[in-house]
Design brief:
Length: 213
């Protein structure tokens, strides 16, 4: 797997690794597919995690473990979207806003998870260079993927919050391509948020008798 961690090219003085580039391109494609509510978002996300797992395994144990969790959540998302693919009436999953209870549970899980993972990273320094922001991004990604699996519009808000920390952290740690990709993520997230928001509002509108659907 050493070839995955070799240098692909240099961009603006930043050394771009093959693993960083390929894995994040698949991640970007998965986000675009998620915007379109395509069930293929999950196999592509799984493949992105698999590539990064292979690149990190035996070298950065903590990063490899995080990608293993991402792959498990991708399998959960595939299962959820397979079950609900007819709910939208167009062969895709229906999207909705989370209830206040669901929001509270996700926020509490994100806070508790970030603290727990950060403490784990601090106890084992080889797992992470920056325990707190790294834990925040990791847990935030899992929460975002869970919300996506459940068809919640809040999925996009979670990704925005991850981006706010992910962009500077990746540049600071030398993963320039990840930093650039997170910037593109931000643009896709805004478009995806608008699309899912409008779809959820349309689904909530009652259809008048005799009116076109």
């Amino acid at each position: 797997m050493n070839s995955l961690n070799s240098e692909a090219f240099v961009l603006f003085g930043q050394h771009i690794l093959w693993s960083d580039m390929v894995g994040n391109l698949f991640g970007l494609a998965a986000l675009a597919l998620g915007w379109r509510r395509s069930i293929w978002t999950w196999p592509v996300q799984f493949l992105a995690g698999l590539i990064l797992f292979g690149a990190f395994f035996g070298h950065l144990t903590g990063s490899a473990g995080k990608q293993a969790v991402v792959m498990l959540v991708a399998l959960y998302g595939w299962w959820q979207w397979q079950r609900g693919k007819d709910e939208g009436g167009d062969g895709h999953i229906a999207v909705r806003f989370a209830t206040w209870r669901e929001r509270a549970v996700m926020a509490a899980a994100a806070a508790a998870g970030t603290v727990a993972v950060a403490l784990l990273f601090k106890a084992y320094p080889t797992l992470s260079w920056d325990p707190w922001p790294d834990a925040y991004i990791f847990v935030g990604t899992i929460v975002a993927m869970y919300a996506q699996a459940r068809g919640m519009v809040e999925f996009w808000f979670a990704w925005l919050l991850v981006d706010l920390v992910g962009v500077p952290l990746n540049f600071a740690n030398g993963y320039a391509f990840s930093g650039f990709v997170y910037v593109i993520y931000g643009a896709l997230v805004l478009w995806g948020l608008r699309d899912w928001w409008l779809r959820s509002r349309a689904a909530a509108q009652p259809t008048l008798e005799g009116a076109p659907a």
